[in-house]
Amino acid sequence: MKILSVASEIYPIIKTGGLADVAGALPLALAKHGIETTSLIPAYSAILPKLGKGKEIHIFKDLFGYEAKLLRHKVGELDIIALHCAPLFERMGGPYNDINGADFSDNWARFGALAKAAAEIASGAVKTYAPDLVHCHDWQAALAPVYMYFGNERAKKTPSIVTIHNIAFQGRFGFEIFENLGLPQEAFDIDGLEYYGDLAFLKGGLAKAWAINTVSPNYAQEIKTAEFGMGLEGLMNARSHELHGIINGIDYNIWNPATDKDLTAPFNHNLLSNRKQNRVTLNEIFGLKRSKQPLLCVISRLTWQKGMDVLIDAIDDIIKMGVKIAVLGSGDAALEAALMAARNRNTGSLGVKIGYDEALSHLMQGGCDGILIPSRFEPCGLTQLYGLRYGCVPIVARKGGLTDTIIDANEAALNAGVATGFQLDNVTKFDLLRAIERVKHVFSRNKDWAKIQKNGMKSDFSWEKSAQKYVEIYRGLIAQSGKI
Ligand code: ADP
Q1: Cis ω on the peptide bond leading into residue 131 (within 30° of 0)?
Q2: CA dist., res. 137 & res. 14, Å (int)
Q3: Cα torsion angle, 423, 426, 428, 430, sign
Q4: pLDDT per position as a tens digit, 146-176
Q5: In angstroms, what is the span from residue 198 Cα to ligand 1's centroid?
Q6: How far apart are CA 392 and CA 456, in angstroms?
Q7: Which end of the chain has the smaller Cβ count within 10 Å, N or C?
Q8: Closest C-alpha to 211, from 250, 179, 246
Q9: Residue 56: beta bridge partners?
Q10: Atom 2 of ligand 1 has which residue's CA nearest to it?
């Protein structure tokens, strides 16, 4: 079985968030089931050195007005097809925005081109490669099923699936760009791309893909409601028979506290005392005073979604409770500034690093006692899974995949010896402080705390089980296409 995975980022080549982790790890997990995955990604200038020379497999004479090429590359164990188009992808900044953080104004063309390239591959344009199924991740790839739906017989008969990593990001653009997409007029209707007079790439993909999937069972339910569906709840209800929820796995080779080179002191569940040495390093890095109270961390995009405004509102009170906090993140300028101001008020108790630092994120998971994740919505969440693996106890909002993966340390769960973290009912200052009170209380009972850490470290969120579920969906869709 040959799968073409289409994504705008893929770890370890280019990453801004959880999408990259999934796009990078799933192909390796699927390989164990005999599935060949090739990943189609844009050849951003920042990743050209990592891609190396590559082998040309196709030329587009006119892709959104530009000449473009598909090159095959091998990066580690990943099979990559990169879409090389200098005017679209070779520029300063990140995958989606310029150096000032503003979205590129032609993102519709950049990711429209990515999706169009995927559909062309499905239509048989590349002589040396033909996928059995196209798996699209998020809005950046979501136009592919639309192009396939309106494409040649072969493209139409190739199954497609769209995975929603976050339904809040919909790739919404003004209707005036529609004529540039090269789609028939009928694609711009209520059963296609049209979205409140505008168009939304994600909506088009969700309407036309053979199946839809999201990254946790709970989020698959939540997005059918107005609170979480972000306007797409009607479509999610209409397609609920084809909507799946599969929890993300994590790569246990990369996230393994026993072998992690980013830790001062590696450890395992029988050697939790080593975590103290990691904490010493963290105290230095974040300028924190030594303390016997819990050290909690945040590793996150600093946004409203992640509940960072609520955390900032509560932070002085949390510090007053004797708890220390280390924050690593970047995002909204106002939240970054508020955190820096809070740090200046709480020197020695609150450490803040603004930026993106993969190595430091590992050390924080390996040295902090808990990780705070007060998200307003969270499709799956990965940092709580890394926390579980590293004995860094997750303190999470009861939302999306956080609900599916964390067992709250209430008295019943503590007595049964199954707790793995703490949940807060609502993302409010009051509930956050109440949860931290509970954290402090259990932390003071060393045995109970160690039990929670060990439960988490032993829980299994590897890709094995989740990859199996993807295989089942792929098989079902390919059977429908009549290929098997
Ligand atoms: P999302 O994809 O919504 O940002 P996830 O929890 O699914 O949230 O994934 C976030 C990923 O990005 C995790 O791998 C996390 O460790 C990483 N991450 C987030 N912010 C930072 C940061 N400032 N530095 C290093 N890693 C970060």
Answers
A1: no
A2: 15
A3: negative
A4: 999 999 999 999 999 999 999 999 999 999 9
A5: 30
A6: 9
A7: C
A8: 246
A9: 71
A10: 18
Q: Which residue type does 224 have?
A: K
Query: Which strand (E) or helix (H) includes residue 56?
Result: strand 55-63
Give the gyration radius of the chain's Cα atoms: 23
- C-beta 477 within 6 A of ligand 1: no
Structural tokens at position 196:
């409140």
How much of the chain, in percent, has pLDDT values that exceed 70? 100
Q: How far is CA 253 from CA 3, 28, 273, 400, 462, in A?
A: 23, 11, 22, 26, 10
Instruction: Indicate the SS3 state at residue 141.
Output: helix
Alpha carbons 254 and 265: distance in angstroms, whole number: 16
Instruction: List the strands of the sheet with 160-164, edge to edge.
Output: 55-63, 66-75, 78-84, 36-42, 2-6, 133-137, 160-164, 211-214, 243-245
* Whole-number pLDDT of residue 484: 60
Q: For 11, list phi and psi in degrees, rounded to 5.
A: -75, 140
pLDDT (0 to 100) of residue 412: 96
Core vs surface per residue 327-360: b (16+ CB within 10 A) or e: bbbbbbeebbebbeebbeebeebbbbbbebbeeb
Output the average pLDDT for the chain.
Answer: 97
| Ligand 1 and 387: CB distance under 6 A | no
Q: SS3 of 97, please? A: strand
Query: Mind giving me the DSSP string for 174-217?
Result: -GGGGGGTT--GGGSSTTTTEETTEEEHHHHHHHHSSEEEES-H
Q: Give the torsion sign (CA, 206, 207, 209, 210).
A: positive
Q: Take residue 399 and report the two structure tokens written for it.
A: 């939302």
Residue nearest to atom 19 of ligand 1 (CA): 300
Q: Give residue 16 CA to ligand 1 midpoint distance, Å.
A: 7
Which residue among 169, 248, 308, 382 has the greatest number of ligand 1 atoms within 8 angstroms of its CB, and so is best to mutate?
382
Closest CA to 129 of 40, 13, 68, 43: 40
What CA–CA distances, in Å, run from 104 to 96, 141, 355, 441? 6, 16, 21, 48
Cβ distance 246 to 218 under 8 Å? no
pLDDT for residue 471 is more than 80: yes
The neighbour count for residue 444, using CB atoms within 10 Å, is: 12
Distance of alpha carbon 307 from alpha carbon 381, whole angstroms: 13
The atom of ligand 1 lying closest to the CA of 328 is 23
Contacts of 176 (CB under 8 A, 6+ apart): none
Q: How far is the CA of 78 from the centre of ligand 1 (A)?
A: 21
- The residue whose two tokens read 């580690």 is 76
Query: CA 142, CA 55: separation in Å to the nearest integer?
Result: 26
In whole angstroms, give the CA distance from residue 214 to residue 279: 36
Q: Is 123 in the pocket of ligand 1 (CB under 6 A)?
A: no
Atom of ligand 1 nearest to the CA of 358: 25
- This model's pTM is above 0.90: yes
